[in-house]
Each structure stands twice: as C-alpha cells, then as structure tokens.
Design a protein that fits this description.
By secondary structure, this protein is mainly alpha-helical. The chain contains six helices and two strands.
Length: about 130
C-alpha cells in the first residue's frame, strides 16, 4: 500500500484518462503539478494526455512533441511510481509514436476515423 494517500485529482485524472477525456486530464493534474513544478512524473502524465488530445484533433506535430517529452520525463520514474506501472506507460507512448502518421497535421475527420492505440491507467500495489 501507499505510505501517502494519492491526491484526489490524481485519481480523478486516471478516471478521465481511461474515459478518453484528455483535455479534462490536463486541468486535473495541472492543479497539483503547479504546487511542485519539479515533479516531472506529473508533468510527463500531463504531456501524455496533451499529446493524445492533440492527436485527436489532427495536430500530429504537437502530439509527436508531447509524446517525446512525456517519455523523457517519465523514464526516470520506472518501473513503478505513484502506483502506476511507468514502464508500461512508456511502452504505450512508443506504440503511440509508431502509430502517428508521417505528416504534421491531418484533418479532424481523419483523426476521428483513424484507429489509435488506447491504454487504461491502473493503480497497482507493489
């Protein structure tokens, strides 16, 4: 079990992420990240959700940039941090990067119709 209870916003973030509500994810985590901007774990999760949000709207260049930052920030927290299998999240980011089209932008319709890998965050207890 965790020695420190996880913040409510973090748990809500996981729920929103799993529901595909990536914009709302940003707002939830930003609130707690602003309290400690040196926390690259929260920043990495923020950037992952922003990357997914950009991809949904066809901003492939923005998604690529955010995924790269997310991977860089999260990598130091492997294998598990705050109950999340960070190594698995990093593997998901690599899958996302590989699934992005070559172009910098695609239409909203294309983005909506294109199958894209999904991932569900879950709290594991180690």
């Amino acid at each position: 079990m965790h020695s420190v209870p996880l913040p409510d916003q973090y748990l809500q973030f996981i729920e929103k992420f799993n529901a595909g509500e990536y914009y709302e994810c940003h707002d939830l985590l930003e609130e707690i990240w602003m309290e400690d901007k040196s926390d690259k774990f929260l920043q990495g999760l923020l950037q992952l959700s922003v990357g997914l949000y950009h991809r949904e709207y066809g901003n492939i260049k923005g998604a690529r940039w955010m995924f790269g930052n997310a991977r860089k920030y999260l990598s130091r927290y492997q294998p598990v941090h705050w109950g999340i299998d960070v190594s698995e999240v990093i593997a998901y980011i690599a899958t996302c990067e590989a699934a992005l089209p070559e172009s910098d932008t695609i239409s909203y319709a294309e983005a909506k119709n294109e199958a894209f890998p999904l991932y569900r965050l879950q709290i594991i207890h180690r």
